[in-house]
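Letters spell out the chain; backbone shape is given numerically. Both lines appear below:
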Amino acid sequence: METPLEDRPPRSRQWITGLLLVAAVAFGMVLAGSIELTSKANASNLPPQVLPVANVEAGATGLPSFADLAETVSPAVVSIRATSFESMPRGGGRVDPFEFFFGPRQRQQQQPQQQQPQEFRQDAGGSGFLVSPDGLVVTNHHVIEGARELRVTVGEREYKATVKGDDPETDIALLQLDSDETFRYLALGDSERLRVGDWIMVIGSPLNLDHTVTVGVVSAKDRSGLGLGRDISFENFIQTDAAINFGNSGGPLVNLRGEVVGIATAINYGAENIGFAVPVSTLEQVLPQLRDTGRVSRGYLGLDITNLDYDSAKAFGLDTPSGALVNSVREGTPAQKAGLQHGDVVIRADDQTVEDTHDLIDYVSGRGPGAKVELEVIRNGKKIKRTVELTERPGTDEPAAATDANSEGSIEWLGVEYQDLTPGSREAHGIPDGIEGIWITDVAQTSPLFEENVRPGMLITEVNGTATPDVASFEKAVEAVPSGEFLRLYVVTVDPRLDRPIGRFAFVRVP
């Protein structure tokens, strides 16, 4: 029988204890190496002046120390001061207390020269980072938007800068420092290889506090539909819990090797530790055009598309939620000319598989105007192909719509009330003559359509591909769907703030 450890001689116990310590140290080194915390820097093959890969080693607690990483990256992180001027009437913005309570005073007519507007200076701050030795700086579009003068601080020195290129759709801008110096700059990493839970560091100038370092992890990837940018089509954010505050915009997110993997862009005002960054893969797509031409030229289809989920895939009779669902086809666009229709599901673009909307958007945008793209779509359960000749993607101004009624109805389980459209309701709500459907007057909060973001004032124009120009046809189409199957409703929004009606699908399972 084996002798218990406590009964063994002291020398034997010391030897066993030492062996256990050696084994523990060896295991710790293997574990640290497996998460790339002990890898050494190797800058021998890096371009001149590019900052070397950082050496982030485990500290005494076993967690990484970010001190070396911050020291390595900071020289290429800049703060930006954007100065703009706004014209306002003289005295504008000030309220006379007497007039507030007793009405306007009687005054002699002022001379025209006294009415000349004043210019008010506004200074805004942001962050950025150098990406080339000749002084190219990446930041956000919203940091420099409308600026008449730009000054960039690198280390202890301030430089004038000009806008080299600007892309509002992805919120990326490229600046050129007014200097002949050679600058140290950051290498771009691979944001596609990021995993949820990976460590990242954010460096910037929040609230004008230069070179503030915060750390956290990648909380999520591929965040979209947030409405944070000018064009929701290009939203593809990295979410992080590293603190991002006002003034961080444009600053880099770096991995443990000191490579840029994202650009700090937005924060969630209603929560703590929820920030968003543009992935560096997006920067790599637009950087050559920003550098060479100052703008980004993209191919354009003219589709409003959305991702499929399990329920919507089943509603279209698909086995998997793969592809880009066409919500609407814009008038006079390449997609309309090629015969695409709402309800089509795009599954391939040339030889590229389309798993979601970003696959299609990125591919088409990258092809550029004038290119021909063959799209494979599923329509009513059958695969068809359409060849589209792309045009130049227009600006980011978007659509509009609204509605009214006569004959009324409701379906209790659906939780909505609706009416027929009348000439009066069309005129009152600005509904184009070409749109036929029922006008939704009320949606109960318990309605399954409420969770689909269907609201009063919207129109339902189709049920499962069948047009519903009036209440009778709508109710007939709904009643024809068996219990347990899906309703596929085509919902149109008309809003005076938009320049055209917006259509999309809503999915509801019949009880």
Residues 408-509 form a domain with the Pdz3 Domain fold (CATH 2.30.42.10). The CA atoms of residues 464 and 488 lie 5 Å apart. The mean pLDDT is 79. The two ends are 69 Å apart (CA to CA).
